[in-house]
Amino acid sequence: MEPEIGQCTFLRWHDAVLIPRYDLRPPNADGKPLLGTDDLLALLTFNLAYDTGVVPLEAHRVQLSGAYLGLAYTGAQPAEIVDNEKSRPNDGSWEEIFGPNQTTGRGRPKALCYEDVLLMVVRHPDTGTDVLAMSIKFIHHKGADNKPKPTIFFFTMARKVILCLITVIISQALRDQAFAARNLISAGDVFQTRNKSPVICTPLRWKESMLKVPIFRSPDGPLRDDMERQTLDAGFEKPFGPKAFRKASDAVRDQMMRHDPKWATFNSAYINEKVQFDIQNTVLDEPSEDGLIRLFTHMSLMRDPRAAKDMVRDEVWSSLPPYPEIEELQRQREELKGRSYQIKGHDDEEMIRSLTRQIRAKRAERGKRIRSKYREFYFHNRPTWDIERQAVPDEEEEYVTPVIDLHIAERAELAELLVNQPDSLAGDGFKQLRVQAVELMVALCHRQETAKRRTLRERAPADVRIKEETQCPRCIGNEGQLYEERTFRYCRPAVMYDHFDREHVKELRGAKQIPCSHPKCSRETLEFKHLNHFKNHVELVHGVKLRV
């Protein structure tokens, strides 16, 4: 087949089959989201003060703030900011099949490492005072192993601490004990550093062992997933990811994204389609409304703090009709199972498990679609509902900003400090605010919150005598959790077994030495070589039996 004929046939098939079947649209038909300062501030405020989602460690929440700031200020790729490479087998099979993911010359992850950051105390040329500043060098971008294009960004201390990237970097360095100077062990020590005459710049060096360590280390899924979830829960109409920060003119875009200007590949990818000029008043020769025009181009224009990612009411779920595909799969599974409850060793075990996976996937797909449609319905009709309520004064409800109600004391104090920062701070008061914010960030990095905090409640007197066998032997020694969560008692041992297998088994199997963190063994340095050895110790010493 001639190339021209084959290409023409493919285009006809694309237009006649693919587009109508999958309802395809041009990539820029709906426009691309653009984040401004108001959007960034709303996202950071929600992350620290109002997000009820549970992250693996509270250090992840602090790192999310730093990642958002880094993306907003530099427009870098997410992989340049956050290290989230998947764990691989240690037997060398991955490298043998796929080859090394990074070159021998690089010898480090592509994500931002300490050696890429230069934190320094410089003498301000105008005021003569010593201030903290920072430079970040991005070189390991997409394709950098073939054509390195280093780009250096400079940062100063932001007036609003919640928007200050330097503050987050200092908190992570203190958490990792990365400073080479032995006396830099607290936020006060860092902010008290001064230049010694005659130099006007004093770099704060890192330890040699920390140079190739990533600063932002994601413990779970991609940064995109966290950002999309938080933007929906924060009340934005549509989710958006890291690329929403990348809007600029040609010259700025090419320098920040390391694009070659002679290629026109990205000419339309990062240009803001919303005209940010008051063309009407310019033609009419009237004063321009620049503030309004900027507001029109930002995502927060349609933001509704009352909205959430999952806002479908219980009565809506209960009124939904049965889903035929799911019912058919359930019918097939019941026919194969018969009356037997346990399917292990069943003649049709593989088929039954396959049907169970299909049912689970169909339910998740249906739930996601319903939540998305309900949000569209809400954002489309909410303005009409608000207008109709205005006609009936008694029914009009005044929105009250929710109070900051958090379980972890360090997070609550940090949120109050950053969200309600006074505008009149200056001098020593401003410095003290930064020191306090960094210290709270470092303390928060060592805390952990679990998903069962909503079920924590006072038990009835009849339940008080529940044995210790329903407590998790790993969580009870985790000092990063709240006391109520560490000592949580499950309703029965089987539920605790499920929690232990889900939350701890994977981590313990990959460990070379397994310590016992139970309070009874905290003073002893007990370590076990494998998981069964640890389970045997827990059963004999602590009286808690675990699944074999």
What does this structure look like?
The radius of gyration is 28 Å and the shape is globular. The termini are far apart. Helix content is 42%, strand content 6%. Strands 4-3-2-5 form a 4-stranded antiparallel β-sheet, with no helix packed on it. By secondary structure, the protein is α+β, with helices and mostly antiparallel strands. The chain is built from 20 helices and 8 strands. About 3% of the residues have low confidence. Strand 2 and strand 3 form a beta hairpin. It comes from Podospora aff. communis PSN243. Pfam families: DUF3435. This is FluG domain-containing protein. InterPro entries: DUF3435.
Summed up:
The chain is about 40% helix and about 5% strand.
Instruction: Give the DSSP E fraction (strand runs of 2 or more residues).
Output: 5-15%
- The overall pLDDT, averaged over residues, is 81
The overall strand count is 8
- How many distinct helices? 20
What oligomeric assembly is this protein in? Answer: single chain
Distance between the termini: 61 Å
**Basic shape:** globular
Listing every helix as H and every strand as E from the N terminus to the C terminus, the arrangement reads HHHHEHEEEHHEEHHHHHHHHHHHHEEH
Rg result = 28 Å
Q: Which runs of at least 5 residues are low in confidence (pLDDT < 50)?
A: 453-467
Helical residues, percent: 40-55%
Largest sheet composition: 4 strands, antiparallel
User: What is the structural class?
Assistant: alpha+beta
Spatial order of the strands forming the largest sheet: 4-3-2-5
